[in-house]
Amino acid sequence: MLTDRVWEALVKAFASQMKSAFTASSFVKEIFTVGYPKLFSLIENLLERISRDTDVKGVFPAISLEGKEEMVQAIEIFQTAFLALCLGGLSDLVNTVFPVSSRGSVPTKEQISRIISRIQEEIEAVQLDGRLTLLLLREIGKVLLLLAERAEYQISAGHEARQIVGLATPAQVKNFALCQHLQEVHTRISSMIVGLPAIAADVLSPSLGAIYGVARESVTPLFKAMVDRLESCILQIHEQNFGVLGMDAAMDNNASPYMEELQKCILHFRTEFLSRLLPSSANPTTAGAETICTQLVRSMASRVLTFFIRHASLVRPLSESGKLRMARDMAELELAVGQNLFPVEQLGPPYRALRAFRPLIFLETSQLEASPLLQDLPPSVILHHLYSRGPDELQSPLQRNKLTPLQYSLWLDSQGEDQIWKGIKATLDDYAVKVRSRGDKEFSPVYPLMLRLGSSLTENAPVSQKP
């Protein structure tokens, strides 16, 4: 067709002119490169108008789809230059903010905001064209990976980054700043792509994941040290005497020494570390959002409750006055965690388990099996607690295997409820052998109860569930 030949000649001439402009004139090259989104929009509007003006019923389109693509390809040389310019400009900005030569310096909040604003400007310049937006996002992904790499290089490691006694060290303050900067980048960039097609999130997912990973890495050693310290406080529960009898013990309203130590540590961590990391309610951009640090604190609070319930269930012997003292400790723990770490009612299963375990310890053994409280507790916690109601010859797995509470706890961390039940069942079998070997036919009421509960509870519990 004549129109095809005319269009082919036109595109060929246009492509030649574009190539000439790119190679021969630096001024024109710069104008078309910087303004590529506008150039592309002009070409797209031209093609759309020609198609509209030549749309005649029963007649082939004046320009085919291939013809349109050829016209767009004619300016592709400027598209490549535009994307390279964006990548270069953003990379230079990152290199300025995170110079390789200076490891000790931490960028200011304003410098990080400048990078974010520049990225936002680049996205807004092309957002009307979905294809170009995706191409640009790939370049932005490279910039974010560079940013993550440079920030990771700045992270302080070693003892100073992990110490939890006394004031926050300069290394920790530096890591806090890096974490908050990366958190800001992650939050702001994620919000920019909310209104874009789903594929935009897929394009940036790896680089945003890298930003998130480095932000976590900057404070994870400190959080691990804090959790380890809180766990060591809870382990001291086994050094207390919860088997003491008498009204004096029952009337003592003070928290146990280990709980007082735990409260002091939690308060210190909140004052010295967490207050610097958690979002302020006065900050509208992050308040209410689940930030990286908020997630770490939530995890720490959940672990403290779970770890406490585990070891409270292992306490043996447990007298009536000891139960009152343990209930007071649980109330103190709930208050300390809720006020200084995370709202306990938002912690889900660990909180429900704590609230269930407190009244459970006061139930008569005959009432336990039918109690709805069992639904909120891991089977292992219920079964471990029942040892405190049995005779001394019914040894717990901890006693049977001659393990310390810490050693047994580490084993529990690595096992599911089904494996823990196997260890408990072995102690029940040993107890039955002892009773039968001396000619007795009567077992402690706890023995058949544990057999029934162990079989039914572990059948209903997920295999991978950890206590």
UniProtKB/TrEMBL annotation:
One Pfam family cited in the UniProt record for this chain: COG5_C
Biological processes, Gene Ontology terms: intra-Golgi vesicle-mediated transport
InterPro entries: Cog5, COG5_helical
A cellular component term, taken from the record's GO annotations: Golgi transport complex
Domain spans labelled Conserved oligomeric Golgi complex subunit 5 helical: 2-46
The protein's name in its UniProt record: Conserved oligomeric Golgi complex subunit 5 helical domain-containing protein
Annotated organism of origin: Hevea brasiliensis (Para rubber tree)
